[in-house]
């Protein structure tokens, strides 16, 4: 059984912003503004490194290119095809 989605459970404190993403030839980093295990309410930095096998960077670059083309002014990094943040 699936629980019904409640908009009241959605928190923008936990949503990554597009401007926090940095792409290089060997890495991608972005910030999560809040982490649930932090007692001080601090976020964390996510680091994706290039790999020789199953490299995540081409997928991230492809996603960001398409995301920016469809939603160039949307502030959030991760979006669904309809432009909403995933829950």
What's this, in brief?
By secondary structure, the protein is α+β, with helices and mostly antiparallel strands. 16% of the residues lie in helices and 16% in strands.
Task: Write a structural description.
The model has no long low-confidence stretch (mean pLDDT 85). The protein is globular and about 35 Å long. 0% of the residues are buried. The protein contains one helix and three strands, in the order βββα. A hairpin with a 3-residue loop joins strand 1 (22-23) and strand 2 (27-32). It is of the alpha+beta class. It has a three-stranded antiparallel beta sheet with strand order 1-2-3, with helices on one face.
Keywords:
87 residues, alpha+beta, three-stranded antiparallel beta sheet
Largest sheet: 3 strands, antiparallel
> What is the SS-derived class?
alpha+beta
Main sheet: which strands, in order across?
A: 1-2-3
Would you count the extended β strands for me? 3
- Coarse morphology: globular
Percent range for β-strand residues: 15-25%
Q: What integer value in Å does the Rg equal?
A: 15 Å
Mean pLDDT, all residues:
85
**Number of alpha- plus pi-helical segments:** 1
Q: List the secondary-structure elements in sequence, H or E.
A: EEEH
Share of helix, binned: 10-25%
Calculate the terminal CA-CA distance, rounded to whole Å: 17 Å
Uncertain segments of ≥5 residues (pLDDT<50)? none
């Amino acid at each position: 059984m699936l629980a019904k989605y409640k908009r009241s459970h959605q928190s923008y404190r936990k949503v990554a912003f597009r401007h926090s993403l940095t792409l290089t030839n060997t890495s991608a980093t972005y910030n999560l503004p809040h982490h649930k295990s932090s007692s001080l309410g601090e976020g964390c930095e996510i680091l994706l490194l290039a790999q020789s096998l199953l490299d995540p960077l081409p997928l991230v670059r492809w996603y960001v290119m398409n995301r920016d083309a469809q939603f160039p002014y949307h502030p959030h990094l991760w979006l669904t095809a309809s432009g909403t943040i995933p829950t």
